[in-house]
Amino acid sequence: MVYEIAFWAALVILGIGVIHRIDAWFLRDVGLGDRNASTAQRFGAGVTGILAAIFSARIFTVLKVLIVDVLFQGRILRDTKDPLAWVMHAAIFWGFLLLLVFHALGSVFGVLISSGGYVPTLNPFMVLRNLFGLLLLAGLALAVVRRVVHSAEIRTAGADVAALAILALIAVSGLLLEATKITAGSAFDRMLAQYAGGGLSADETTALRAYWVAEYGLVPAAPVPSHDRAVVAQGKIVHEAVCQSCHTPPGSAAFVSYPISRAIAPVAAALDRAGAVRGLWYLHVLTCCIGLGYLAFSKMFHVVSTPVSLMVAEVAGTRQSPAAVATRQAIELDGCSHGGACHDTCPVKIRRLDRVGATAPYEPMLAYVDHKNAGDLGSRPVSG
């Protein structure tokens, strides 16, 4: 119930935020272009431009930008002044995206990599979840290190801290949740009640519990004969009949969360009694929902606006109507002003300078936040 309420509330907030941000693309005036173009004209020019790109050879240009510059962060890869920038962006982008697709939306996309669909306790999902979570955390760690080392060049505002904190909390709480589930006797008992029902005798249950202590990292509330080979062997037979089809041994798959479970093993029983699994589940889910709702109002929206601005810049013709130019500039501003500190290798800036070519930028093009101005971004004359 809590999940449903939080998820739908976050989705509504996200929808409102996205509408607000996209609405600004057709209302905001930027630069020295024609400010008399109405919202309807700008919207119409935008739709016309999209359709013209889709139903023409320019669609291949759009696909190239989508694949090279968005999915593989090609523009950042060519940032020779700071090669770690590409590693950082790629790790965060791919770590989060793949967690979203194959974990959060695993019930939808899991069939793409497993004929049996999404089963979180089986491979490849368990090992991929750990891999993608580690990749995301590595990218976030690089982001923090870069901001500390290059503090003079990269300004860190509250929005930056919030974005990094939300992503880090999502990854850490997810790995901790999996680690506590591995050790929790309560999680084992719920699994038995749900999938075995009353079909096991007391001896079979004890044997299965002993096998899970020996092979799956379970930390039971009461001692079990996990060192009795005969009992463990009996538990293995029960496991193969009841559990094996949907449980991969975490020691061979959860290469991040399983070591954590071993580290917390001495206090695992106490954590289980305190409700750690349920508490971490709430923390993880609610953080994900907060991040979802906050997305459109934060700098994290540049994962949407920057790719859009790059594609718009790529397909822009040599001559555009004032309405189209006004919309394009507003989108580029949105992508740039939420993408971090303005620097020479900013992908939006490079796209603009590529388009400008040999033409001289006029001054002033923009006058907005701190370092960003006409000289930084460049522009071209607007043709009516």
Describe this structure in words.
The chain is mainly α. The chain has a domain at 183-283. It contains 19 helices and no strands. It has helices spanning 2-27, 39-54, 58-71, 74-77, 84-104, 106-109, 125-149, 158-183, 185-196, 202-215, 229-242, 250-253, 257-263, 265-273, 276-294, 302-315, 322-337, 347-356, 374-377. Helix 1 runs parallel beside helix 15 (276-294), helix 16 (302-315) packs antiparallel against helix 17 (322-337) and helix 16 packs parallel to helix 18 (347-356). Residues 339-343 and 358-384 have low confidence and may be disordered.
Main β sheet profile: none
What is the number of helices? 19
Low-confidence stretches: 339-343, 358-384
Q: Could you give the distance between the termini?
A: 56 Å
Order of helices and strands: HHHHHHHHHHHHHHHHHHH
> What sort of overall outline do the alpha carbons produce when their principal axes are compared?
elongated
Jot down its keywords.
mainly alpha, 384 residues, 67% helix
Task: Give the helix/strand layout.
Layout: H1 2-27, H2 39-54, H3 58-71, H4 74-77, H5 84-104, H6 106-109, H7 125-149, H8 158-183, H9 185-196, H10 202-215, H11 229-242, H12 250-253, H13 257-263, H14 265-273, H15 276-294, H16 302-315, H17 322-337, H18 347-356, H19 374-377
